[in-house]
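Hi support team,

I submitted a single chain yesterday and got back a structure, but I'm not sure I'm reading the token output correctly. Could someone confirm the output below corresponds to the sequence I sent? I've pasted both exactly as they appear in my results page.

Thanks,
R.
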Amino acid sequence: MKKIKTSIYFALLITGFFVTACENRKLEEIPRGKPSLIIGDQFNYGIDSILLFPIGCSYKPEISGEIEKANSSKLRSFGFKENNSNFYDMNAQKEFVNRNQQDFDIRNILFHDLDQNTSFPLTEDSLHILSFGVHYEFERNLIFYRVVKKDYNLDQIYNDEDAVALFTSDLYGKNFTQITPFSEKFVSYMYYEKSNSLMLKTIIDNNQDKIYSNTDETNFRSITLDSLGLAQNIFTDELKDKLRKQMEN
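Hi R., thanks for writing in. Yes, this is the structure output for that exact sequence:
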């Protein structure tokens, strides 16, 4: 009798193991839901014939359905807002920033031409737009964008803690061009009217601790606005190596 009970126990144990394994496998086979495409409310950035629509998704897609049902203020916080303090771009006539970096990821911007009734995205690449500033002071009017490519510090949010790059386009979202590399964090710039050029300051995470701080190396690049592209270093690697050796003595 004892042997029969033992056999039954092991049979139930094995059956339970296989049932649990099958259930786990079924759960693994269920495809994960794709993030919902959120098209934010249109807004005017200074060009009467053009409207902008922010494009993105929630960092927490599992609750996005509940947010939409409740029509909560959090969902309405998706998009850009005009920045009136703590400017990232001190020289911009207008600056717009992500309303809620912690909850929403702005991946693109749709430019909609009211006169032509046409729309097109700012970029075809996979990027994350933190803010942009509108400039009328140059020979060619431009928009400056602060953009992130990768989650550098692996906190699952694309924000100012990551490597930020500078991009430009014209006022109509055309000729979207990268100015600083993603291997450095863009900090600030100075505009020199006489040469129609920019001096750009960046930070290099030289100790590779995934944090951009005041103790990391700084770098300077320059570019003329007559020929937009990736800005060039103004100090050579040889010169910087020599200066590092002087500091060690």
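A quick pointer for reading it: The chain has two domains: 1-30, 31-248. Let us know if anything else looks off.

Best,
Support desk
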